[in-house]
Amino acid sequence: MLRASPVFGRRTSTPYAHGAANSSDAGVTLFDDVVVEALASHSENEARRFVARELGGIDGADRRARVLRDTLRVYFALGLIAAATGKALGIHEQTVAQRLHASRSERVE
User: What value does the mean pLDDT take over residues 21-44?
Assistant: First the structure.
């Protein structure tokens, strides 16, 4: 699903997003592919809102949030490979899949 930035509304409404998108060699760049750069270069407050929206629910100090963050950290570090993540964490690959699903479900929409 494509979505417009909640901050800028359209890619062309900010020179930061527009510049990042136009620097692509692929010819077409989706705003979602450059939203982090656009926010980071525009406003720290807007960047914090973006992070809170995207990571909300797994940013807590409780055990569940820590487990989900740790799983995501290892999953990304190992190239998005669930089997390698499971091996590194000492859990079954299906448990990794369940945690990944849970981390998506925790997001604030």
Answer: 69
